[in-house]
Each structure stands twice: as structure tokens, then as C-alpha cells.
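Structure representation.

___
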Amino acid sequence: GDALAALPAARPRWRVDVPRDALRAERGLVGPLVVDGVALVAGEAIGVAGVDVATGDLVLHRPEPPGDAGPVVYGPDAMLVVAPCLHELPVAPRDRQLGCYAALAVRGQAAYGAGSVVIAAEALPDGVATGRRELRVAGRRAFLGAGDGGDAAWVTFELPEPPRGEVRATPVAPRDVPPAAHAPRVRSAVGGHPVDAWLDDDALDLRYHDPDVLAPRAAVARVAVAPGGVWEAPGGGAVRAFSFPEPGADGAASVQPVEIPLDQLVKDPLAPPLPGIAVLAAAHDPATGAFVAAIRLDATLTHDYVAAFTPAGALAWVWRLPPPRGGARALPTGVGITAAGVVVFHDGSAVTGLPPP
């Protein structure tokens, strides 16, 4: 039967199909990043686009590829991209060029400035020059890197004000790089002492900073690992995530939003389980406490859906993603949420607006 038929369903408020270049690969997909009421999405085939969450208006479209590092929001109306330079720029004999940066407005086509990123050749970590790169920003300091864990290599540079001209990068240790916005290390507190929580290998890992705790590391199993999949619960002292309950008598897999008190590590259900085998992405609205998740229903890769939850954790509605091109959904799905509504980025170029929970 239809596993979603008995659940409340939402109707899309709008849909935008971002123009894409059919000759470019559909890779490097990012978004939606919601800032200043605009949902930003990006990819090699679509460039960078911004859609007004409330109205569905396409308020920004720069068709040139943003590169595999960005965009990253760094101000109330500004984002940064670092991509291969479109034109050869002069470089000092002992320097290497890492690419060109551009500081762009979130609404409209304005560019606040642009320039190149260089580094002394002898200081350049190998992975940053050859690997798939990632961009992170803290204030006006940018971090450009590639790789994971012990193999990660990163450099850092300061974004000038105004953001124009050549900037010089220097190597930086991975431990000094801020966490990615889509996969944060959540910090809460228990008894006045910090507790860090993050997702890794189908589990929620925790680290306690209380010197009186006998076992400073802990883990909670059967938790969904997905971008945005863990965040601090309203009021602190706990985190919210999605769990995989043990299959029922019929053997059907399910996904359930839970709240996990950091001093007990018990998964308290927030809503009844929903059918599904994986969480593709999740997001929450810090202002309201509402949250949303994209869920894979089964292994056919054709029956994905979005579920939105109230601040208390109750299910508000579900929305089925349209059938994917080519018979299976191979491209990632992203979700975002604000008080104005839910945004879904799917199938490489489609942005759909849904009502708030």
C-alpha cells in the first residue's frame, strides 16, 4: 500500500527551475543556504541562483560555475566563491595561484569585489592544489581545503575590505579550521560544562568537558547521519536528531525524530516513526524551533519525500518529491527552513517552496 497516504500532505507554494547548461556536469551541488530571506543554490551546471523564500522570485542568477568551493555566506547580504580564474593573471615567480575569489550580493547581480588567491609555492599543501576543494568562512577569514581527517590540507586568507585584489594564503592546521555549516559540531551544556555532539558512522558521538565525568566520550547508536542532522534542542541540555527504530513485526524500516538529553543519552521520541530507510538532509529554524527532513522511502531511489515538524516535534505535513529524471534520483536533495516556509533543492536545478510547519 501507499505508506504516505494517511499522512497530512502539503501543496507547493511555488517552484523555480533554474536554467542550466546541458553541456556542464551536474556536480558540485550546494544548497539551499537561506540568508536574508533568500534560498541560495549552486552547481556547475546552474551557476549560483537565489530564490526569495516568501514569493518564489528568482532574485539572483549568475550562470558561471562557482567552482567546487562555495558559495559560503559570510555576511547579512554577502557570499564568497572561490573558483578557477577565467583569465590568466600575473603571478610572482615563486608563487602559485589557487584560484580567484568573488564577493557577491545575495540579492541581485551586484559583485562587491573580486581578486586572486596566491600562495608561496614551497608552502602549498599538495591536496589543496589537486583535490576537490571546500570553502569555509569565519568572519572575514576564509579557509580553503581538501580532504578529510588526517589527510586534510587547508590554507587560510583574510578577505580584504573592500574585497578586491590579490590575497596571500598560508597553510593552517585542520584543527584550526571552523566546522562546515552543513555538518556542525553542536555544543550544548550540562551542569555548566560544555558538551560537544556530532554525527559519525551511523551514531551520535559526544564529548564531555566536565572533569568529573569518568568517561568523557560516549556514543548513541542508530542515529541518521545527514547534512544538518543534529542540532541543539530548544532550552539546551539536549540535542535533536533522527533515529532508526528497530523494525516492527512487518520488518518495515522507519525514521523517527528524537530528543536526546545529554546527561541521560536516552532517545525520547518527538513524533511517531515515519516510513523510510535514510535521511538525505535536515534543517532547523533556530528562531522558531521547527525543523524539516528529506527522507528516502525505499531502495528504488524514486520515492523520496519531505517531512516538516512543528517546534514541539509533531509532524505537520509531508510532500512527495516529483519522479526523478532518468528513473532514479542520483543527485542530492537539500532542505532549508525559515518562518516564511520550507525550501527544497532537488534534481540538480529545481527549487520548490512549501508552507511553514
About this structure: The mean pLDDT is 89. Helices lie at 126-130. DSSP finds one helix and 30 strands in the chain.
